């Protein structure tokens, strides 16, 4: 049986199990075990035992549960709502200011939350209702909240970046530095889009009348700002520490987790219920990620042993048009896969394969890693089956404050479209100017 046919059969089996609803870890791990027995025999299964638990020895993984714990403590203690209220009193009376502020707050909270679906739900809960009440266009408000919530996929300290780096062997520190400028470039493009649309059509960002207008009293502005001073200082300390090299991402995660408890205590919102719920969610998400690493270790060993990597390299070298065309085709494949696969599944299955091909073609793997992260966010919002679209649909049907606005899936599709186009523009900029991703890592490391 040829390596090409085995590769096709291997991935067809994984996708069939995923579409059938089997969890990612079981689909990858189960396929690896079945193919290992079929082609290598039962006596070679010890190879999978070693390969499965090998990825868990990566020191970078220590940061994952700590960042997750930090995000859940800040979420359960209501600090995310405080951040939104602070932005509201400062920017709420500007034309489109509340939407632009939402992008900023969404990016901050999504970065520290770790779980993209939880970030979307939280940002939607605290910001979509106020935007709609103040007369903002429905599609603009939905798109702003959804795109802002997904910025945490690339803006450090991102859990997704840690997972990608750990599974591909890239440096977490270099990936953080590489994603910093593209992440804020994307946020800037969102804000620029809101600003331009607001000036071209002021009805889209109407502030409402009477009680709908936000208070502009300087005393209240200062009071709201003091309320979020502690979490903002915490996040800045972590980012400065990571980018200056004073602390590693693992050490920063410990600082962040401890600092989250301090922030909650300062706000007098730290109690046993908040702590227990945060610890429980941290344990659940960490265990899920741990089993994913075990499964992908088994799966990668099987597809490497059966020649799948060699097949991928041969296809890349044989493709007409040169290496850059291969990179562009990979981006299109990732966008398509993002319509049907979760970002973690995409990273686990295709991250190592694509990075190996990119490396063999002679391109900078760090640059491609940043492209992969930006692409993952784009895929999450791409109709018709982007996971972020359905997450948003669940949010708007379960939050009482926005149910009365009758938001359909078609509204969400229309809301996502301009922001997807902005993300594609950002991808194109990164393809044309790779130094945006490589400048900071090369300068500081």
What's the short version?
With 445 residues, the chain is an all-alpha fold.
Number of strands: 0
Oligomer description: single chain
In N-to-C order, the SSE pattern is HHHHHHHHHHHHHHHHHHHHHH
Number of helices: 22
Choose one word for the global shape. Answer: globular
Set out the fold topology.
Layout: H1 3-19, H2 24-40, H3 46-53, H4 63-76, H5 79-91, H6 97-113, H7 116-133, H8 138-149, H9 159-168, H10 172-200, H11 218-227, H12 229-244, H13 249-266, H14 272-305, H15 308-318, H16 323-338, H17 343-361, H18 365-380, H19 387-398, H20 400-403, H21 409-432, H22 435-444
Helix pairs in contact: 1-2, 2-14, 3-14, 4-6, 4-13, 4-14, 5-6, 5-11, 6-7, 6-8, 6-10, 7-8, 7-19, 8-21, 9-17, 10-18, 10-21, 10-22, 12-13, 15-17, 16-17, 16-18, 17-18, 18-21, 19-21
3D architecture notes:
This protein has 445 residues and is an all-alpha fold. It has one domain (58-444). 78% of the residues lie in helices and 0% in strands. It contains 22 helices and no strands. Helix 1 packs antiparallel against helix 2 (24-40), helix 3 crosses helix 14 and helix 7 crosses helix 19. The termini are far apart. The relative contact order is 0.15.
Question: Keywords for this structure?
Answer:
445 residues, 78% helix, mainly alpha, globular
């Amino acid at each position: 049986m040829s390596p090409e046919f085995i590769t096709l059969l291997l991935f067809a089996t994984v996708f069939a199990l995923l579409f059938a609803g089997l969890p990612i870890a079981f689909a990858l791990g189960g396929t690896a075990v079945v193919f290992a027995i079929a082609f290598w025999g039962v006596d070679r299964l010890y190879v999978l035992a070693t390969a499965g638990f090998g990825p868990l020895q990566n020191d970078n993984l220590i940061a994952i549960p700590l960042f997750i714990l930090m995000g859940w403590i800040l979420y359960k203690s209501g600090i995310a709502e405080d951040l939104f209220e602070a932005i509201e009193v400062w920017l709420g009376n500007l034309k489109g200011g509340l939407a632009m502020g939402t992008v900023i707050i969404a990016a901050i909270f999504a970065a520290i939350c770790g779980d993209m679906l939880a970030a979307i739900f939280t940002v939607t809960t605290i910001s979509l209702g106020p935007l709609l009440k103040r007369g903002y266009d429905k599609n603009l408000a939905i798109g702003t909240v959804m795109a802002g919530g997904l910025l945490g996929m690339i803006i450090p300290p991102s859990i997704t970046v840690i997972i990608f780096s750990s599974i591909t062997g890239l440096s977490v520190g270099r990936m953080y530095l590489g994603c910093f400028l593209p992440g804020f470039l994307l946020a800037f493009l969102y804000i620029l889009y809101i600003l331009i649309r607001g000036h071209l059509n002021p009805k889209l960002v109407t502030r409402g009348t009477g009680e709908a207008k936000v208070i502009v009293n300087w005393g209240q502005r200062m009071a709201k700002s003091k309320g979020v001073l502690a979490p903002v200082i915490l996040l800045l300390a972590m980012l400065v520490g990571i980018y200056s090299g004073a602390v590693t991402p693992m050490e920063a995660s410990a600082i962040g987790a401890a600092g989250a408890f301090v922030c909650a205590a300062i706000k007098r919102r730290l109690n046993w219920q908040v702590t227990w719920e945060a610890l429980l969610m941290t344990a659940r998400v960490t265990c899920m990620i741990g089993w994913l690493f075990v499964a992908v270790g088994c799966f990668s060993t099987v597809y490497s042993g059966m020649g799948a990597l060699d097949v991928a390299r041969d296809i890349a070298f044989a493709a007409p048009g040169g290496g850059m065309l291969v990179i562009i085709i990979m981006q299109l494949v990732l966008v398509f896969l993002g319509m049907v696969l979760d970002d973690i599944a995409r990273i686990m299955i295709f991250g190592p394969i694509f990075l190996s091909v990119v490396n063999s073609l002679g391109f900078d793997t760090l640059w491609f890693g940043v492209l992969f992260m930006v692409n993952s966010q784009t895929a999450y919002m791409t109709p018709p089956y982007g996971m972020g679209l359905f997450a948003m649909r669940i949010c708007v049907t379960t939050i009482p404050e926005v149910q009365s606005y009758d938001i359909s899936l078609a509204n969400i599709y229309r809301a996502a479209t301009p922001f997807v186009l902005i993300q594609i523009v950002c991808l194109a900029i990164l393809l044309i100017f790779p130094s945006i991703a490589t400048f900071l890592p090369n300068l500081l490391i």
